[in-house]
Amino acid sequence: MADKKAVKDNAKAAEPKKAAKKPSFLSKVKGFFARIGKYFKDTKSELKKVVWPSKKDVKLNTITVVVVVVIAAIFMVVLDMLFGGAIHLMIGV
């Protein structure tokens, strides 16, 4: 009995598999636009979940960034002057 089952399984494995029907161009296009639509729908639903900062928070964060950038720029200019001056003293130009 087990031999018959093994022979049957081997016969199934030896059969060539039927090739899957190739999807048409129109179905590919529909699928493409369906995925694009799903993307925008999902994006819209995710944006509804976002906790947006208040106007006051945005203003405060912007001022903080500008102040830090200005301080960093001043620091870099001072370092450039110091190292440039030191190099001019060493070279003697």
List the helices and strands and how they pair.
Elements: H1 2-14, H2 25-49, H3 55-91
Question: Would you write up a description of this structure?
Answer:
The model has no long low-confidence stretch (mean pLDDT 85). The chain has one domain. It is elongated and about 90 Å long. The N and C termini lie far apart (102 Å). It is mostly helical.
Radius of gyration, taken over Cα atoms and rounded to an integer in Å? 35 Å
Order of helices and strands: HHH
Number of helices: 3
Amino- and carboxy-terminal Cα gap:
102 Å
Q: What is the share of helical residues? A: over 70%
Shape, per Cα inertia axes: elongated
Instruction: Give the class from helix and strand content and strand pairing.
Output: mainly alpha
What profile does the largest beta sheet have?
none
Mean pLDDT: 85
Percent strand: under 5%
- Uncertain ranges: none
Summed up, the domain count is: 1
Query: What's the number of extended β-strand segments?
Result: 0
Short description:
The chain is an all-alpha fold. The protein has 3 helices and no strands.
